[in-house]
Amino acid sequence: MLFSQDINISEALQTNALSMTLMDEKTRYSLRIKPKDLAAFKKASGLKLPAKIGQSIRTSAHSYLCLGPDEWIVITANENRNNLREIFVNMTAKFTYSYVDVSHRNIGFVLSGEQVENAINIGCPLDLSLDTFPIGKVTRTVFENAPIMVLRTGTTEFQLECWRSFAPYICGLFDRFAMDL
Amino acid sequence: MFEVHCPYCNEKRPEIEFAYAGEAHIVRETKADELTDQEWAEFLFYRDNKRGDHHERWWHQHGCNMFFNAVRNTLTDKFVMTYKMGVKRPTKTQIKAAKNGK
Ligand SMILES: [Zn+2]
């Protein structure tokens, strides 16, 4: 099931100082698992869910993001969707938990360049220095008036996800920032 | 803008990620159908509205999405301490210790 993501990113956002690209369509699952079941769930499913809020684990197949004490997002390529769903269905026999396909709710961007921290900071007051926001850290937060999720994937690279209807608004704000560079 | 310490994220986070959620430690009525209108109204609506150190609930809405409790001074708007749901109401001594910088 391919979706037209239909987002235009301006040319001002294609420089070395700041570049913004739209990620391919992805499969995303939201998981709620009781913390006391986590160890057994990981063993039974083989999924590498990090235990601590703000941690992420990226394997060759999936990204596992821990957003709350009992909440995770798993992001993967669409070709892995059926495999992953099969695992989740099998787990329902053993655990009381929830998995929800939120693939089309979110849209993902890759932001990179030496100005990337400053760019995100125009709408988000988090301290994004490497000491407090190291590579691999992920969190929900806000960007101006839009709820977002940020994941640091490199020294000067972030993955930013938002609900799809917020995407043009967020792109517009980055565009205005880039015009001032 | 100030920062609030979220006891679940275990770090200080910007105020705009949080939402206020009323007075804390209000025990839910288990026999609501046996209460008089006055008693029901008191459970639902009557609050201390304290001037000073106030026990209240906060919600880390744009973060870990958890509710937690806090002691905040309603006069100075300073957070004295925050603690997880299920933790007992801090005593006056504990509040005093928190004010003196833990
Ligand atoms: Zn939190």
Lay out the secondary structure.
The complex is a heterodimer of chains A (181) and B (102).
Chain A (H helix, E strand, L loop, with lengths): L18 E4 L3 E7 L5 H8 L10 E3 L3 E7 L2 E7 L3 H11 L6 E4 L4 E7 L3 H6 L16 E6 L2 E9 L2 E7 L3 H13 L2
Antiparallel strand pairs in A: 1-7, 2-5, 2-6, 3-4, 4-5, 7-10, 8-9, 9-10
Chain B lengths: L2 E4 L4 E4 L4 E5 L13 H8 L8 E7 L7 E7 L4 E7 L7 H8 L3
Antiparallel strand pairs in B: 1-2, 3-4, 4-5, 5-6
The complex binds zinc ion.
Zinc ion (ZN) binds next to loops of chain B.
How would you explain this protein's 3D organization?
The complex is a heterodimer of chains A (181) and B (102). In chain A, 21% of the residues lie in helices and 34% in strands. In chain A, strand 4 (62-68) and strand 5 form a beta hairpin. Chain A has one domain (12-179): Probable tRNA modification gtpase trme, domain 1 (Gyrase A, domain 2, 2-Layer Sandwich). The model of chain A has no long low-confidence stretch (mean pLDDT 95). The longest helix of chain A is centred in the C-terminal third of the chain and has 13 residues, at 167-179. Chain A has helices spanning 38-45, 81-91, 116-121, 167-179; strands at residues 19-22, 26-32, 56-58, 62-68, 71-77, 98-101, 106-112, 138-143, 146-154, 157-163. Chain B has 102 residues and is an alpha+beta fold. The radius of gyration of chain B is 15 Å and the shape is globular. The longest helix of chain B is centred in the middle third of the chain and has 8 residues, at 37-44. Chain B has a single domain (3-99), classed as Folate-binding fold. In chain B, the strands form two sheets. Chain B has a four-stranded antiparallel β-sheet. A two-stranded antiparallel sheet of chain B has the order 1-2. In chain B, strand 5 and strand 6 form a beta hairpin. Helix content of chain B is 16%, strand content 33%. At the A-B interface, strand 8 of A face strand 2 of B. Bound molecules: zinc ion (ZN). Zinc ion (ZN) binds next to loops of chain B.
